[in-house]
What we know:
alpha/beta
Amino acid sequence: MLELLNLSVSIDKKSILKNINFSLDSGEIMCILGQNGSGKSTLLKAILGVIDYQGQALFKGVNLATLKPIKRARILSFVPQIQNITFPFTLLEVVLMGRYARSEGFSYSKIEIAKALEVLCMLEIQHLKNQNFYTLSGGQKQLGLIARAILQDGEILMLDEPMSALDLSYVFKLEILLKKLKKSIIFSSHQLDTCYISNKILMLKSGEVMCCGLRDEILNEKNVNALYDVNVKSIVLPNYHKHFFRPNA
């Protein structure tokens, strides 16, 4: 479905990403792990086409770089880490912006508005629909941007650290929701626990792929220690997930 071939990014003659290769099949979820500055956000932006890159990003064999932005927006939905919206849009209006690529300008049908309200209910923030977006808390804004991306209904959903501003209860709810969407999803994260909704893991170190593959093959002590330059151990929890911890801490 999505395939990256030797994708590289340089900014001001500095190499940020080098020869990134991976594939994502329909319905798969991939988690991108890496230290701060490893290139996670840059990789997502390159796939979106908002920054220049060398190499290829193919969707069903079609080079994404050849598509007009509105066509890419029908394929790729994106949730940024931070988006400053200072105009007095309500939460509902921001969510409805997700339909722009499929609507006539900013005119939305009753069906689209009903779908937007349904997504807000899924995320349990429907009671905030008429509140100005910029007055919301960081976590509420994050949920609003996730709702916008879900309403956009691209074939691939990409999220840049979507759980970073959420409290634990909403992290659990979002993980359940992302699994239920049954979409191809790519998300970046600093939290190893969030990897367990994914099928695949891509570990980025200093702008290069350290390893990539099935979650249960990649997520182990050796790789985690090498990725983050730490010394951790792991135990298997009753749900068969691994918990990583620093011994003698």
